[in-house]
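Form 12-C: Joint structure prediction
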Amino acid sequence: MESHVNEVLLRWIVIVPLLGAAVNGLLNRRLSRRLSGLLACAAVGVSFALSVVVFLRLVGMEAEQRRVTDTLATWMAFGNFRVDLAFAMDQLSAVMALVVTGVGFLIHVYSLGYMAHDEGFSRFFTYMNLFIFAMMTLVLGENLPMLFVGWEGVGLCSYLLISFWFNDEANAAAGKKAFVVNRIGDFGFLLGMFLIGTTLLPHLHEGEGLYSFATLQSHAGILAPVATAICLLLFVGATGKSAQIPLYIWLPDAMAGPTPVSALIHAATMVTAGVYMVVRTNFLFVLSPTAMAVVAAVGAVTAIFASTIALTQNDIKKVLAYSTVSQLGYMMLACGVGAFAMGIFHVMTHAFFKALLFLGSGSVIHAMSNEQDMRIMGGLRSKLPVTWWTFAVGTLALAGIFPFAGFFSKDEILWKTWSSGNTVLWVIGFVAAGLTAFYMARLISLTFFGRNRASAEVQSHIHESPATMTVPLVVLAVLSLVGGWIGIPHFMGGLAHFEQWLEPVFAAAAGSGGHITEVHSGVAAIDATAHAVQTGHAGGAAVHDTTMEWVLALASLAWGLLGLVLGWFVYNRRLGVAAAARGLGGGFFHKVLENKYYVDEAYEGTFIRPGFRFSRTVLWKGVDAGLIDGLLVNGTALVVAIIASLLRLFQNGMVRFYAWSITIGMSVFVLYLVFSR
Amino acid sequence: MEVTLTHYLALAGVLFLTGMTGFIVRRNALIMLMCIELMLCAVNIVFAAFSRLHGDAGGHIFVLMNFAVAAAEAAIGLAILVEIFRRRRTVNVDDLKALME
Amino acid sequence: MEGFLFWFCGGLMVLGGLMTVLQRNAVVSAVWLVFAFINAAGIFAALDAPFLAVMQVLVYAGAIMVLFLFVIMMLQEPTLADERRLLRLPLWPAVALPPAAVIVLLAGWFRESGTSGLGPAPAAGFGGPEHIAGLLLGRYVLAFELISIVLLVAIIGALAVGKDERKLPWK
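Section 2 - Result
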């Protein structure tokens, strides 16, 4: 049911960053760097503070009622179709809002130091604030179109920020690629929305916003027949934004942008928009087991696919990029098996440690005078202590080592996958987790251990980053450590606060047909709910399942540790093993992986080049030059000219001709008069 | 045979036809003007005939007006013709097509 | 009397008109036109319009045609060179046929609608100077005045068009 508790602050959470962007954008170089940066960070900070305030308000409310809205105006309205310019925050949005603005704030502070010497300092912060604005619109949108507005907005900002140093054409190309690929996904998203609209509109009553999430949820039954189609179409959009197969190709290229951008947009926030969208519309997805299966499968395959590529990349940021793709796959896997809360949990923890890793890599790159190739790095452990320690924390979190944040979220996902009966997917996820640990160990070894392989000049410049950069690193490291502790599952004696908090959002997924589950009844109820999510694998007492949970948890832990140790060992001590692995199969495997399975090349050949050819020959020469220019424009002029040249014959200046015309006309007229009697 | 209205109208018609055809066929501007006079004369005959038919001498008045207008028109037309001749040394209307498109 | 006048003067008038149009020499054309006008006076006489008949001779034949002859003589080019091929047959029918058809039809129409004669003879003095004067200065005095303005305008216009620019007093 819709709750109409009003919260005016919601609009300010969204608008303040926009104002920040406006001021920075309009005043640009007239502001001193100090002021410009301060303004931008303050804008995000205010947004974060307001998010906290509203969050606390939600905390103080009854669990089933935890939703506040803020309607600014009616955006579109005709007949029964109505879409409002409105924001809403419930438990899910609150989590997202806090993560986005919180991590966003830290990254803004970090950027003060990282971009300090950059020419386009103000422009950078304009775009960053604009991004926060768009992301908040996405997250706090009360209805699907508002979400889509934010969706497009973050796509735009992504483009602007990826090609921030646009003077280099490669960067501009990367930005374009990101935008275009996103657009393809958006097409699917739009089709899904249209399908929802046409199906639902005839059944609406007056006054119900068509795309409002509350309305969609309450009318989910009507959408059930087309749910599969809708969800698959929406998921296409999600694959674009959240870089899943087949539309992930833009994310590695997006590393062309400044490192804070990679941290904020392509690790912590924008790429999670797809996951958020799937979770937001969970009541639709659960209506279609097919769609759920697709989501889970795509997620799992993406996870392992990307992690294999990450094994061979030499650019530090590219490794992290593929790692992001892989982790996003985990989030999708979680959604696909019905563990939506776990998906969001991983979003949150991933935001912490991936942002940390990216910012840390930024620190490394900064120290190495903009060198990104790991083969030239080494031994930075002693030179960059803070960076090293925070990076280590991030790596442990990513590899899923207890008690860091990543352990809890990843473990829960794998557990839910196993317990929902998807053993194959579990295996895929499990293997990928091992690979994750391995390539991170490789990254650490090449970067922080061993001897430095750079030139003497570069080596002389190596220095730790300024406080404005290291403080956020430390904060994120702390979060990467403790961030998972709010989601400690029951079998470990925790209270699963996170899952509990998000429970009401997934009432539909709980299978109780729209009724809010009783969440105050304690552990048993929660376990019962978790069982309801699983597809018929429930059997046995709670004790039996707990044992399995422990087994899997310990297996994940051991496997992760094995991966780390093995990786460190190979790349630190026995480099010969690495060389041998590279030479396996005549260097074939390594070549395929290093070239990212030649996916980009395949797309180029199948879609891009034929597309160009078609555009050039048919659309340009055929339609544009031939049809429109030739026939319609010139043709019209030609017709006019022909008619004019015919009419011109009457204006020949010959008096006698004029007289003759008069005569003829007069005769006709008189004849008419005579005969009309 | 009694001379009826129709006879007079036929006479006027023939004169008018002659004048009009002459106007279209001839190229000498002076002769064209004369053809116009011929046409006007035909009209005068029609007015006089109808005036006689209805016994209303208003038709005669109109004929007098016609005389005056014809005179005025001939005067101005000739003046223009003289001016054109001064400039272009021709009264051949086929040569006077400066207003053509 | 009336019939005789009609046929005689009418026939001669038609002849005069044809000759006017068919002559190559403009002077000869003008003289034939004078001939036609004089016969027109005869037609007017047949129509009980004595005043008009006299006016026709005085004004039309006497003044206007004289003016024409003046101009023809002044321009000294009575015969145009390219009018030699004028009397080619194909051209005339193409031109004359439409109006001819119209006139024939009109004539036919009139013949059907009424072969009435011209009605009873009018009162004596009909069309005479006194009658005309009475109308002109009575019922149609406005037309009379206006026509005088027309003539004034015509004079001024003719002067304006025809004068020699070099001889202007203020040049």
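Section 3 - Comments
The longest helix of chain C spans residues 50-75. The mean pLDDT of chain C is 82.
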